[in-house]
Amino acid sequence: MPAMEFQFTCEDENQPAILAAIRKQAPDSLSWSAARKLMQGRHISIGGVLCMDEGRRLTVGETVQISDRPVPPPPTRKDVRILYVDPDVIIVHKPSGMTTLRRKDEMGWSRARKQQQPTLDECVPQLLRTHAAKKNESKRIRPRLPKMFSVHRIDRDSSGLLMFARSQKAQTHLIEQFAEHKAVRKYFALVPGTVADQTVTSQFIRDRGDGLRGSTDDTSIGQEAITHIRTLRQLGEYSELECRLETGRTNQIRIHLAELGHPICGDIKYRGPMGGPDVEDTSRIPRLALHAAVLEFKLPSDGKLMKFDTQWPPEMQRFLNRLQSKQ
Known about the structure:
The protein is of the alpha+beta class. The chain has two domains: about 5-65, Structural Genomics Hypothetical 15.5 Kd Protein In mrcA-pckA Intergenic Region, Chain A, CATH 3.10.290; about 75-325, Pseudouridine synthase. The chain is built from seven helices and 15 strands. Strands 5, 6, 7, 8, 9, 10, 11, 12, 13, 14 and 15 form an eleven-stranded mixed β-sheet that branches. Strand 12 (about 225-235) and strand 13 form a beta hairpin. Helix 1 (about 20-25) packs across helix 2.
């Protein structure tokens, strides 16, 4: 099949199936077989996210990209690392490209369909069950999966530290620490240009006027979002930042840095301030350059202070080393 590269935005309110929409929009005639080969070969993305699901239906405004080169395969549970487990909490290292929680409208999917793009909340119990079986020297893996409860999320294309609770009581206690700003969360980010150390405070709304989340000047609406920014080092034309969350709104760091005119490298969604031109990303980075590096909290059972930290994963370390070598 000849290489092709194009994109389109869905305007059909009838929620067409992805392959049917691609056949309709393709610049040249495309058979069903050819469309399926594009999907199986990882050439189709929706909003920058790889799509491997033939049953996926599009909503108005979603952008579909067909690339002539295959998108990297989605991470699997082999890419997930469990760093700590006790009766209260589970601390894991999430790979870039994996969603934290399965969406409600995907819960009814078959096991095979889910395995095409596994989520973290599905991978972690499987890993815990396998580890328990090995620890007990059992050849048979018990069918019952251990329960766990969501405390917070990190963006799909971010990597790094994330916590699950092992009981509803622990979940409530940990969520309260986040709500009261007692838990510490720090991220690494790579952005173009030079950013002054500062604290960014704004009111977030779901639609800033162009369909994206963002800040508003109207302080009577929205949710307060606070990010503390510190430069760690300059890497030529780029800056490596530490961003500490005081609040934890959806896409908070990505939005604040984009609104400052320094969108995160690899971010295809937030590319600049509302109303201004997009800041071109010339980094050619393979992923979103955002990493949850530090997580600090108190255990629900005894109040013991726990601190976890992790460095950039290897693919990002290699990219940063190349930037440093060019200085």
